[in-house]
């Protein structure tokens, strides 16, 4: 199967990409019933794809058994309406294990996260992702961030690798991304997917869209899908005025609040989901919950965002 076939198989349509949080009960165990409800709500709200057990879903905190159960639950709840992409990570052997668990659970694709801890050279990174891609028939999106940063030449080789269909960028170096897009376009013409994977990606998506990165993850969609959808519509329609109003009144304040605590890219999102009426529990260590004042600020930011939508009607 060619990379083009795999891109077609994954079939991510235009729309917000939903990264559900993983729900935990009062005793800290995975709450699959609440997780299923969260996934159902996201799909019903208009998610273009479900990225299960990835960064926002606390992949790092899940056992293999919990991971497989959550991916399977997401697949069952989407019922083929949108693709389900599962995380895979750690060292090569464990990443391969998670990839195979995801395939067994019915996932449509994989988001291959950086290897655990080590800072590897380009040759080692390329070997790592090629081994993950070879382990299953699932299409693989490689996640660039932290200790997995690629040269344009390495991304060209990734794009030539059977099974690897895209790159998600969580680094934020637009110069590097422009050179990557240009190199792949020149050396490997055809379908290759690009994603903006920065936390609260809407904040930077106007810039990413301009350099040829049309897809982006939306953590905001977890707790304020109407706001996320309004921003996406404005982006697609070229309605810059609406996009900028949402950036000024909602996204920028949210990003500034997110910067107030380590791990808030996950714990603030989870607090937002609870605030909107679904008790998904707290984050697992080593992440921590936002302080009371920050939760209050989050409620005010969400309120302002929805007020802006009402004003626009």
UniProtKB/TrEMBL annotation:
<keyword id="KW-0456">Lyase</keyword>
<dbReference type="InterPro" id="IPR017655">
    <property type="entry name" value="Dehydro-deoxyglucarate_dehyd"/>
</dbReference>
<comment type="pathway">
    <text>Carbohydrate acid metabolism; D-glucarate degradation; 2,5-dioxopentanoate from D-glucarate: step 2/2.</text>
</comment>
<protein>
    <recommendedName>
        <fullName>Probable 5-dehydro-4-deoxyglucarate dehydratase</fullName>
        <ecNumber>4.2.1.41</ecNumber>
    </recommendedName>
</protein>
<dbReference type="InterPro" id="IPR002220">
    <property type="entry name" value="DapA-like"/>
</dbReference>
<dbReference type="InterPro" id="IPR013785">
    <property type="entry name" value="Aldolase_TIM"/>
</dbReference>
<comment type="similarity">
    <text>Belongs to the DapA family.</text>
</comment>
<dbReference type="Pfam" id="PF00701">
    <property type="entry name" value="DHDPS"/>
</dbReference>
